[in-house]
Amino acid sequence: MSDMEYNKEKSSSGPFFNRSFTMHTTAAESNTAALHLLLSNPSSLNRAASVSKFDDSLDSAKGKVKQLCSLFESAKSSSSLATPKAALRPSKSISYSSSFSLSFNNSLIRLPGTEDRIVVYLTSLRGIRRTFEDCHAVKMIFRGFRVWVDERDVSMDAAYRKELQSVLKQKTVSLPQIFIKGKYIGGADVIKSMFEFGELAKILDGFPRMKPGYVCQGCGDARFVPCWNCSGSRKVFDEDEEIIKRCLECNENGLIRCSDCCS
């Protein structure tokens, strides 16, 4: 028997499914099948009922939310009508500016002989970090305006400390302390606040400006130079009495004020 005859008998004897064959159902058959599935599965009916109940509860919740919103809006409108509008208050900068100008003009503490300059009592020692940083910050603020400042270092000359104590009438004083046009201003916090609010620029408007990068040729902005009498040794030899005495020119300090920038 040939292979062709064998295949023909096999196809005629049993069922044969072709992959290209597709089944099509009519609309009536699909509706009948859906109705049969609905009747055989009653839980689907309960599901539809639960969905309708959920919609009803959602609508009732929306109604309650609207009622609450209306209550809050009515209470807000009534409170706004009951409370009067608050009066406008001046800003902090305006109040600070006016208070500072009044205190500066009515300053009772004066430093005689300094009406034409800025005097800053400070220290160059780094023993107390906060004090040194405050002194340095004040120096940098004035240096930014390029104005000449009479810096009086109390750590280099004890006479400066005594002078400050007598002016402020206090035995213990903090540093730095600033005087502008002979009037007492305050410490580092006051100068920083004045600088931030623009009040310091107004006060320094009438002072002459130095050239950018100006440095004193006599002391290099150190404000002090070695004593010309003892050359910084604090002692001098008296040839007449042939003894060593303390230097009266620098008060046994070894340094004197620079005549070029501290006159």
Briefly characterize the structure.
With 263 residues, the protein is an alpha+beta fold.
Describe the structure.
Helices cover 46% and strands 12% of the residues. By secondary structure, it is α+β, with helices and mostly antiparallel strands. Strands 2-1-3-4 form a 4-stranded mixed β-sheet, with helices on both faces. The chain has a two-stranded antiparallel sheet with strand order 5-8. Helix 5 links the parallel strand 1 and strand 2. About 12% of the residues have low confidence.
List keywords for this structure.
alpha+beta; four-stranded mixed β-sheet; 263 residues; 12% strand; single chain; elongated; two-stranded antiparallel ribbon
Question: What strand line-up does the widest sheet have?
Answer: 2-1-3-4
- The CA-CA distance between the termini, in Å, is 138 Å
SSE pattern, N- to C-terminal: HHHHEHEHEEHHEEEE
How many beta-strand runs? 8
The gyration radius over C-alpha positions equals: 48 Å
Overall mean pLDDT stands at 75
Percent of sequence in beta strands: 5-15%
Class inferred from helices and paired strands: alpha+beta
Residue stretches low in confidence (pLDDT < 50, at least 5 long) are: 5-22, 82-94
List the helices and strands and how they pair.
Elements lengths: L2 H11 L13 H14 L2 H40 L9 H14 L12 E5 L6 H16 L4 E5 L4 H11 L8 E4 L2 E4 L1 H10 L1 H5 L20 E3 L8 E4 L4 E4 L8 E3 L6
Parallel strand pairs: 1-2
Antiparallel strand pairs: 1-3, 3-4, 5-8, 6-7
Helix pairs in contact: 5-7
